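#struct-help
A.M.: can someone run this one for me? Single chain, 122 residues.
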Amino acid sequence: MAQTWKAWLRLLFGGGEPESVESPPPEEEEEPEPYVVTDFLDLHGFFPEQVREVVDEFLKNARDIGLDEVRIAHGKGRSVLKREVWKVLEGHPLVRQYREAPPERGGWGATLAWINQTGNTG
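D.P.: on it. Structure tokens below:
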């Protein structure tokens, strides 16, 4: 890459034709990072309008791997994400019950939900 810039600089500033201008190597397509589904979902960095889809997919994955309980961190702040999470959990076919996490597991900045293994989401 350094040769390319040096060659173009010579051309621009009176050094004549570049001896060789190498084209950059083709970019390799990056493979997506693998992820591991666990019993914890951290929503920090998500927008409220993304919560429904993310939480729904998380609950489906939790059910598929046989988890009984999950924890969703939404932050303490103004509780906008918390309200969105609770809207999703309310009446969700995969959720038996949910509640605020105890202090040692996130307190009012996280929610615990228990998975209904027989729930059907289509």
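A.M.: thanks! Residues 52 and 88 are 6 Å apart (CA to CA).
D.P.: also worth noting: The beta strands are 40-42, 69-73, 95-100, 110-115.
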